[in-house]
Amino acid sequence: MEKTWRWFGPNDKITLEMLRQIGVEGIVTALHHIPNGEVWSLDEVNRMKDFIEAAGLRWSVVESLPVSESIKYGGEDRDQLIENYKESLRNLGKSGIRTVCYNFMPVLDWARTDLEYPNPDGTSNLYFNFGEFAYFDIHILHRKDAARDYDEVTLARVDELRKVMTPEGKKRLVDNIIVKTQGFVNGNISENDLDPVQKFRDLLALYDGIDAGKLRENMTYFLNAIMPVCREYDINMCVHPDDPPRPILGLPRIVTCDADIRAFLDAVPDPHNGLTFCAGSLSAGAHNDIPALARKYASRTHFVHARICNVLPNGDFKESTHLDQRLIDVVRTFERERPGVPMRVDHAPLMLGDEKMGYNAGYSFHGRMLALGMVSGIMATVHTENT
Question: Which parts of the chain sit beneath pLDDT 50?
Fold first, then answer.
């Protein structure tokens, strides 16, 4: 696999020169300064590509070319936004960039309640506390009938939290769930928003009446519209699985499991319609057999995210080590069946002062460097197995 790294542009505190020194081969990035829905011009694409190549690296994957909410829920301006998307794809294709990661998650790209959950060794990781998330949904967001979506055990956890929750604790949940984990990804919410909770409610309201079936229909409409451009320029689209892989906040999720993956691949069977195999997102659902899914969908995987989660009995989940046996099996599968596919390590711990640097949540330097070393070691071992 190609060793890639998610880099957030020239303002990223982690420089391209640093990445060359630790064995990174390709860069995963986007034109973060261009608002969602606007065209990525050829000049802008080439400017970023030239900047990366001047540092001796290559722009391997776009993550992400965001799919506007209106495309997902089927708004009146959907067709114009799809035309803009197609033009951006053409310009990427003209520049020789062939892999585009995206997601079809409504409103919330990914969810965590704790961005610095302490580990016994002194590092910290991302953590999803199901009780805290339910508390946010019921008592901060005040979503109508939200309590109906949770079982009695989770509601009991919420009641306990009500007894001890402070204003600071509420602010932490708002920041972690809808601000710090979202602003740098999709731009829906930013740290400059005066009332992020109300803005979030307004975004949720856009999906009133949109169920999983309708969301699948809208995804198929989008994919069918862009496939001619993908064929013309040989661009591989690879959807990111839902994180976590379950319905949340009353929103449907449609890339959560084996059946979901099969459904969107069958709906648009063009080989340019593929999967970002994020072992971490899929493993946040205890229903998923990650090594088996890797073997089943290797041929339709265009991008790999190397991380893995442990799900606890109460529904919470946290990041596991990059030497987890399941992830070793995943790396072995892709090294054997898709040896050139781009891979990036993901959601590594904060360590050795990372927590003081202001990195985007989940995207430390030292932690990801350690993870890259671990995965590189797995890859080297697989190579010896194959000889």
Answer: none
> Is 32 annotated in the active site?
no
Is residue 278 annotated as a catalytic residue, yes or no? Answer: yes
Contacts with 323 (C-beta within 8 Å, 6 or more apart), sequence order = 374, 378
Helix boundaries (H) for the chain: 16-21, 42-54, 69-73, 78-94, 130-135, 152-164, 167-174, 196-205, 212-233, 258-267, 279-283, 290-297, 325-337, 366-386
Catalytic residue, from 101, 305, 316, 322: name it. Answer: 305
Residues 331 and 369: beta-carbon distance below 8 Å = no
**259 SS3 class:** helix
Domain ranges across the chain:
2-110+210-386, 126-205
Greatest Cα pair distance, the chain, in angstroms, is 61
What confidence score (pLDDT) does residue 260 get?
Answer: 98
pTM of the model: 0.95
Per-residue pLDDT reduced to its tens digit, 166-213: 999 999 999 999 988 776 555 676 666 678 899 999 999 999 999 999
% of residues, the chain, pLDDT over 90? 92
For the domain 2-110+210-386, what is the CATH code? 3.20.20.150
Active site residue 347: yes
CA 376 to chain centre: 22
Torsions phi, psi of 228, nearest 5? -55, -40
Active site residue 346: yes
Nearest to 330 by CA among 363, 297, 364, 300: 297
Please identify which of the residues 12, 242, 346, 354 carries the catalytic annotation. 346
Distance of CA 249 to the CA centre of its chain: 18
Q: Does 322 qualify as catalytic in the annotation?
A: no
